[in-house]
Design brief:
By secondary structure, the chain is an alpha/beta fold. Helix content is 29%, strand content 27%. It has helices at 9-17, 29-33, 48-58, 82-97, 111-114, 126-136, 177-182, 210-214, 250-255, 283-287, 301-304, 311-324; strands at 2-5, 21-24, 63-73, 76-78, 118-123, 141-142, 148-150, 155-157, 165-167, 170-173, 194-206, 219-221, 229-234, 239-244, 262-278, 296-298.
């Protein structure tokens, strides 16, 4: 049996293209669903494969639209001159990852959305996709947490008493990779090789300022290191998602700039909000890997620990693997 570890979007996408796979979705999925509606910059790039996938899941035609990204830095509100754009990308990366780049070191390509400030996406409510995928595959979901992985015996345990236990032929890991290794018997120390930074997210009503709502930008980035928040995303009915790089009082931080009045509906913390790095200095990390590693596949941004992966990349990879393995594709054949 094959199992997907994790009931987030990456896990649901993999399972959609692999109908013989079951999903260990986690015991807290219903609670996590509340976060799906927070306005955040979650998009799917408009590619032929992603369009076909989305229209089949939602059962309707989907249009495309252009997403515009604004930068607020000093006196600039949306568009900054090219001469300071690289500085903004550097400051933003350092702020969101909690690191200091050497002056001669180039800014990592994934900084500030890979430097793309306008791009074409499929136009639909993103949380509808997550909900539809979950409903399509609910019968294949196991709503439990994994307590421990016994990799040598290809067994996972769903509670600390070892009952029930599940044997696998393959597991597809979509949860954050350090969380996976922390649960692996005899390999727990691998978790320390991965570095990340938490993100605090507020779901709030936001009444001002007028220029913010009149602007053509879908979300704004704030590279200024003196501010604790780094991104504000517009939602419907003047609802916003506000992301902080450290735990601070949201209103006191925003009021000095442009917060007029509003209401906080919800706050959530992503422990691995921003991927920082994977340690690569130890040769044992690359060489001393278990011989049965072919039965473990890492998938998705947090499973692979690659911050530049986008949703359309996952769709194409999952579909391509399913075609290669000649599995039936739940209506995805041309």
């Amino acid at each position: 049996m094959s199992y997907v570890i994790g009931g987030g979007l990456a896990g649901l996408i993999w399972a959609y293209f692999h109908p013989q796979t079951e999903i260990i979705a986690g015991a807290d999925l219903e609670e996590r669903q509340k976060d799906w509606v927070i306005p955040l910059p979650k998009y799917i790039y408009d590619t032929p494969q992603s369009r076909r996938f989305l229209e089949q899941v939602l059962g309707e035609k989907v249009k495309s639209r252009t997403v515009n990204v604004g930068i607020c830095y000093k006196d600039y509100r949306g568009i900054v001159p090219p001469k300071i754009r690289d500085l903004c990308r550097r400051l933003y990366y350092e702020k969101t990852r909690g690191v200091k780049l050497e002056k001669e070191k180039p800014v990592p390509k994934e900084a500030m959305g890979s430097g793309k400030f306008s791009f074409e996406v499929l136009d639909f409510p993103f949380h509808n996709l997550e909900q539809e995928l979950l409903e399509l595959m609910r019968e294949r979901c196991i709503f439990s947490n994994v307590w421990k992985f016994d990799l040598a015996n290809k067994t996972l345990f769903l509670d600390e008493l070892g009952n029930p236990s599940l044997k696998w032929a393959e597991i597809v890991v979509t949860i954050p990779q350090p969380d996976f290794w922390a649960l692996c018997k005899g390999y727990e120390e691998r978790a320390m090789f991965f570095k990340s930074k938490p993100v605090w997210i507020y779901d709030a009503d936001f009444s001002g300022p007028d220029w913010f709502w009149r602007s053509p930008f879908d979300y704004f980035l704030f590279p200024d290191p003196t501010l604790s928040f780094f991104r504000i995303t517009k939602g419907p009915d003047k609802r916003v998602g506000i992301e902080f790089s450290e735990e601070k009082d949201m209103i006191s931080q925003l009021s000095s700039l442009f917060w007029k009045e509003g209401k906080i509906w919800r706050m959530t913390v992503l422990r691995h909000g921003k991927i920082v790095s994977k340690h690569s200095g130890s040769l044992s990390w690359e060489v001393n890997f278990p011989p049965w590693s072919e039965e473990i596949r890492f998938f998705g941004r947090f499973g692979t620990w690659k911050s530049d992966l986008k949703v359309h990349d996952l769709i194409e990879e999952a579909c391509g693997h399913a075609r290669k393995m000649s599995e039936p594709l739940e209506g995805m054949q041309k």
